[in-house]
Amino acid sequence: MTRASPKRRERNYRQYCGLAAALDAVGERWTLLIVRECMLGPRRYKELLADLPGIGTNLLSERLKKLCALGVLSHEESTERGYVYELTGTGESLREPVKGLARWGMSLLDEVPDDSVVRPHWGFLAVEAMADATRSPNAREEYEFRVDDEVFHLRVDHGVTEAARGACADPALIATTDAATFVRIGSGGCTPLEAVEAGKLSLSGAPEAVLRCSTVLGLGTGA
């Protein structure tokens, strides 16, 4: 697939700079949120529309068309599922920058506004963004998160982390909560202990595993 030339883009910063070129490509409203959704795996158009409330059908189509032209996404038609979009190798190279922005943005979150939408699968991306196993370099175990109707887990192995959707075989810790509470904990709006005391979070596992998981995720326990 031919990548779109920056010279042919309708709007650009006209700056010979890598950051400006990146923003020309993916800096428009909604674009990185579409990338975020596709970081979870192939997504159908209807799935993207449902998980990006407020974007509008025409704008979503426009953004998808541009991302495909840039080589960030690929798409193919399935008779059963319609068009399916997924990250290319170029798109996958945005994973770390997107995770870095998500990590930085967590500190900007306050209480959950009444008109805001929270999706449980965003908790998976939050764990990916927050996890740093070098904070607990000797840990070798798995933590399972049950956030509303989503289940995912984090594996830590001597300074290396790997997040994956689905349950794990032998979790050292199982955390069960709702999406809004999960994001509040990640943003520092409350500690895990405060969420437990409020009945918003349940933890199953040894206290030492809770402490190690909190350390890996950079959370204060509140203990």
Task: Note the main attributes of this structure.
39% helix; 10 helices; five-stranded mixed sheet; 223 residues; single chain; 8 strands; alpha+beta; three-stranded antiparallel sheet
What does this structure look like?
By secondary structure, this protein is α+β, with helices and mostly antiparallel strands. The protein contains 10 helices and 8 strands. The chain has helices spanning 18-26, 31-38, 45-51, 57-69, 89-92, 95-106, 122-130, 179-187, 192-197, 207-216, and strands spanning 43-44, 73-78, 82-87, 140-147, 150-157, 160-165, 173-177, 201-205. A 5-stranded mixed β-sheet has the order 6-5-4-7-8. Strands 1-3-2 form a 3-stranded antiparallel β-sheet. A hairpin with a 3-residue loop joins strand 2 and strand 3 (82-87). Helix 6 (95-106) crosses helix 7 (122-130) and helix 7 packs parallel to helix 8.
Number of strands: 8
Separation of termini? 54 Å
Average pLDDT metric? 91
User: Which regions are unreliable across 5 or more consecutive residues at pLDDT < 50?
Assistant: none
Give me the secondary-structure category: alpha+beta
Order of helices and strands: HHEHHEEHHHEEEEHHEH
Largest sheet: 5 strands, mixed
What sort of overall outline do the alpha carbons produce when their principal axes are compared? globular
Radius of gyration: 19 Å
> Strand percentage, roughly?
15-25%
* SS element count, helices: 10
- What portion of residues is helical? 25-40%
**Numbering strands along the chain, what is their spatial order in the largest sheet?**
6-5-4-7-8
